[in-house]
# Entry
Amino acid sequence: MVAYQYYPGCSLHASARDYDESVRGVLGHLAIKLEEVPDWNCCGATITPSLNQLQSQILPARNLALAAENRGDLVVPCNACYMSLKKVQHNMVKYKEIREGVIDIFSQAGLSLTGMPEVRHLLEMIMEDVGLAKVKEMVTKPLKDLKIVSYSGCQLVRPLGFDDPEDPQALDQLMEALGAKVLPFSQKSHCCGSSLMTTQPELAFKMVDSILEEAKKVGAEMVVVTCPMCQLNLDAYQGQINNKFNRTGQLPIIYFTQLMGLAMGLSKSQLGIQRGIVSSNKALEKIV
Amino acid sequence: MSDHKIGVYVCHCGSNINGVVNCAKVTEEIGKIGEVVVAKDYKYMCSDPGQEMIKNDIKEKGLDRVVIAACSPRMHEPTFRRALEGAGLNGYLLEMANIREHVSWVTKDKEEATKKALSLVKGAVKRVKLHEPIEEREVPVTNTTLVLGGGISGIQAALQVAEAGHKVYLIEQKQYIGGNMAKFDKTFPTLDCAACILTPKMVDVGQSPNIELYTSSEVIKVDGYVGNFTVTVREKPRYINHDKCTGCGDCASACIMKNRIPHEFDEGLSKRSAAYIPFPQAVPLKAVIDDGNCLFLTRKKCTLACVKACGAKAINFNQHETIHEFKVGSIILATGFDLFDAKRAPQYGYGRYANVINGLQFERMTNASGPTSGHITLADGTEPKSVAVIHCVGSRDENYNKYCSRVCCMSSVKFAHLVKDHCDAEVYEFYIDMRTFGKGYEEFYNRVQEEGVHFVRGKGAEVAQIDGRLVVIAEDTLLGQYREIPVDMVILNTALEPRVDAEKVAQTLGISRSGDGFFMESHIKLDPVTTTTDGIYLAGCCQSPKDIPDSVAQGSAAAAQSLAIIATGKVKISPISASIDSEQCAGCRICIGLCTYRAIKLNEETLRAEINEAVCKGCGTCAAGCPSGAIRVSHFNDDQLLAQIEGVLA
Amino acid sequence: MSDNFEPKILGILCNWCSYAGADLAGTSRLKYPANIRIVKVMCSGRVEPTLILKAFQEGADGVLISGCHPGDCHYVDGNIKTLRRTPLVARLLTQIGIEPERFKQVWVSASEGEKFGKIVEQMVEDIKKVGPYQKKMGDQLDVVMHEVAASAKEAAAAEEKGGSNCGS
# Structure
């Protein structure tokens, strides 16, 4: 069994339990072992970077330090956590003064840094280590005729991501491997508004609307996502957005791992599919 | 020990070297070596007084070896060799120590730099003792020139060589000459019509008795060296007998594929037949049959309406490709550029939204003989009321090309003017910086600003379709604001890129490419026309993006280089070659397999290997492989290299 | 090994690509450690094992060979011969007790000034970790070197004659 270290991040223990359930379900099915990093803390995504550069490195760096004590790459399912951890990893390797500053603060708190794990997004790990051939082999119920658009979000591909920043390909390829019909989509890596949804909802609504409208226009039945933050923003506010911009119709927002699970024959409840706010039952009728 | 009289000269190169390396100290230290009879440092060794000093010392002090510690030998070795020869000493009794590019410019610490410089000079002193006089070889020159590429640079070069009375073979991959310029409508900054200034030159090419034009042709092999190249060219069949075709176009009108194939010359904005004439002013004005689309050639099934329509009986489906071989003295490369495919930057919606077009498509649109007869129209045939021009698509962008494509600011300004002129729409230009650097360029920019064009400083980030309308999204860095500007049409001014087959061409000709993929010049400032391979010259956009004036200038410059070779009548070729000591040769034949140039043969009588020095290029690979140590490479023999290694490590 | 050990590296560079690449590092004013001494050959294919052994004999702590990228050789395929020789030379050096960090063969084109600087930087760092090169053969060194040089040539020759079975 191949083993990875797993950093679920806050969302997957709370609002995105469905993502966590499907990740564990699918990887278990693929005989991949995940070891959750012990005593992990917040990834530090949105809170501190604008206040103090060095201090903003500490939260993520502590996670990296904890992970470094074990073996294996650090797999992260959330785009925001991924970027935050990856950025700090990059800074620590590249900039001596940051590395030394972090080590200094660590020593004051009795922490040490024994190494630096590779930080990889779950999608990256599935594409590169598992591979499309293996995925295809595991598919027992192809997602035939399911019309989807894949939405990678922005933090998966910028600034240090692994896919094309303007036209990401990995999620498209994975969905095609599952048998889904992937529609062309110009909003693949647009921002979902992220935490502006709480501070400047007017702006975030507009951003979500442009994503959902384009998805509807190309004829998608669902939007596939790789991030709990994107999922929440796209899923939870569709009623308000429809009222505000005079739109009709709703689109289910689903995690890529949930579709992987379905295509591999896992049950809806194993994958937490019932937890989505906009129901995906209708869209999934023809395959389940 | 033989006793030589060595002169060592350490150049300050102003402060370039002396600012980091303590030249006086290097000179002092090196002067302590026994055979060094003269050690001097001087501000500019390559200057006249510097060279005179060396010459005088050779004459007065009887120096028989010279070491110059200065810039890279790639820069001034020929200069100093001439200086030695001027004083009656063979030029190869010189060794240069590169203490500028390899020491002062790359080292921070002054002490370290001085130490390193001294080591390199010591190596040079040890090596130069073992140098031998070498006579440069001279070979006669074939007085013909091959120009590869029939765009404006290639045309310019070909015409100039031809006008000087020498034969030119002009090879063009497409079915016509004129290149990208033939597609343009107006040219900046004077707005002359491209056809008006280009067509006469194209006609001259067609009529010049000294130019042999080969279209639909490509170079597949280049052998030989400066003055004596043999170039093999493959000419693809056009399925039209050139001698009979009158260029009437009857075959094109008759072809049953009429109006079904996207026309490359119109950048896909119009449709053509399978038999067609590329454009009305094409040179040669002959029809061509496209073997990828002709029904008869692809499926052997067609009514052959073209054959019936052709009064001149010029159509010949039995044509095959022809291979030509030319002996030429020099080669001018003018293969041009490819336009960046805007689909690679999906954020701009090219290929997704019908009214997002690239610059060349806009050129065709405004061209009176183009697909819309010179009208600027949207996909639905109406005139746009507002147009956006986005600069730097694929240029100055870490994701695509880091370089500036140089022509786009000016062509964007020209587009704005043409839009104003043709349909008076609002025009928004999205730019990072305006770069209008040429003669008359800034004036043209000012004029267009006064025409009421909106210049938005901020790279267009995205083209979206919001509620059915194109919207350009950008950060206006002068206002410090995010802007969404709705427009009817977007023109993406895309980057100029190396041609897709540039790597293949570079390998066929044995020349280098720079990091950006364009062909590399010998020296970016002082030798921008020659390549690192003698006798092969560059012109136009194959070297780097450039506008028409610069392309023409470089075409002329390349022609001058070719003519210079012809005028001299002979060229010096590198005298570095290998030779075999038949006493030591065991006849094992290993070297024969190692030599790419087949310069080594086994003498069947003596059973020893022999090297044909005329064919040998002097790489020395054979010497490195000879188990008996029987092969000597002149100027790079074992003893010289070992002595230099000993010296630099001492 | 002492803290202020500064390794001495011999660089043998081909004239057309790598020497020009090192020149470009200079014209671009890129700074890299002063530990390398550069010797020019026309083609990396000219580099025979003797030159490398000579460097170690003369007290070098490392040797760097650099040529044009495969496919870009000024002499068509001289660098391919280098490519075939490299694993043999590397094996030979390990056999006589020279650590693998001390010998490196790379491709640097005329446009890769930055890459050249980085390679030197990395090599200096790597050699600092293994320390100064000790002449392990004592007084016998010259004799051994001579024998080794002869056998290396023979091995390379046999290899070139026999095809490309490098065994790397």
In short: Residues 250-309 of chain B form one domain. Chain B has a mean pLDDT of 95. Residues 548-568 of chain B form the longest helix (21 residues). The longest strand of chain B covers residues 217-225.
